[in-house]
Amino acid sequence: MSNKFWDITFTPGVKAAQTHYGSRPYYAKSENGAAKNARLTEQEIEFIGERDGFYMATVGEKGQPYIQFRGGKRGFLKVLDDKTLGFADFRGNLQYISVGNVSKNKRVALFLMDYANQRRLKVLAEAEIKDASEAPELIEKLRVADYKAKIERAMILHLEAFDWNCPQHITPRFTIEEIKAMNAPLYDYVEKLAAEIKKLKKEVN
After folding, report:
1. Residue 1 has pLDDT above 70, yes or no
2. 73: number of CA atoms within 13 Å, CB side?
3. CB count, 10 Å around CB of 151?
4. CATH of 37-173, one of 2.30.110.10, 3.30.420.130, 3.30.300.30, 2.120.10.30
5. What is the dihedral of CA 174, 58, 107, 111, to 10 degrees?
6. What pTM did the predictor assign?
7. Which of 8, 64, 192, 204 is most buried by its number of CB atoms within 10 A?
């Protein structure tokens, strides 16, 4: 079965590099048949819903690539259907590099990272921008509860393909929330010890 992500990214130059370094036969075997990785499954939908940030790459009019980190509350990147993602684009540093790039070249690439579990999802899409004033219903659908940043526009991502990346070389990193969850049993144990010490001190006195 073919891989839609590979169909898009394996250009003649890429295939030449694969041939040079010896991996071409492996990938060539998978290039016939119906393409997979063109629609999100429950696995991708769940993974996307757990993220609180992602990296988005665009390309400018001079061919210069640019990458930007987009962050928010967990789940701010929403799955609208199995071919469409969307997020409320908040006011930032007012440079509008990604927005300007997308206005001329709609192709974007996303990296969604789960550092703690060494997982990485790559997404290729075409971006569509709608100003907040012209799409109020869409903005409400993308709005994140209890997050007061100013929404300037909606960014809709029409999925072209996705691929799960190799976990090699992903250094595990943990959020404060994840560290607290891992250490919860330890915190409970320390509290019990503190209570026991307090009780023993009273008995001694």
Report:
1. no
2. 9
3. 19
4. 2.30.110.10
5. -10
6. 0.86
7. 8
